[in-house]
# Entry
Amino acid sequence: MRKIDIVIPVEAVAYDELSDVDRQLVDLAREATHRSYAPYSHFCVGAAIKLSNGEIVTGANQENVAFPSGTCAERSACYYAHATYPDAKFEIIAIAARGTDGNEVARPVAPCGACRQALLEYETLAGHDVKVILAGADEIYVLRSVKDLLPLAFSEF
Ligand code: THU
# Structure
């Protein structure tokens, strides 16, 4: 038997400790929560993706009365980004959320499994790590890559 420990480094930082571009992405992800359509869960998630062409694309969760038809913020952002700028590579994604009380969550929320898989596809396409910034009101987590959110990910290749 061989035991494999998978260690995932997460930096917990304050807003002021972020670089200018990372702060801008957090600001845009927070703003994007106000464009969420969440009449069922009242949980508003926003995402901002910085692309290699300098563009920043945002997304927000969009719910539907037929629940499974809704889409998370991360997938709304990443699909829009790649559908709009197919040649640009993802560089950084920031994610923020507001809870049912309308306030930003104190602790960051992390993407669901389906979003992790979708984001990993674009990290693989980029050919380099895509930094992940998970923003909460009290604390912000920074991960070096999407891979770190999805250890032992499925890969055909
Ligand atoms: N949601 C996201 O937008 N991103 C996630 O990674 C997890 C959950 C959304 C889906 C749904 O509209 C609401 O949050 C409550 O689950």
Summary: DSSP finds three helices and six strands in the chain. Residues 38, 41, 43, 45, 61, 63, 70, 72-74, 111-112, 115 surround tetrahydrodeoxyuridine (CB under 6 Å). The longest strand covers residues 90-98. The longest helix spans residues 113-126.
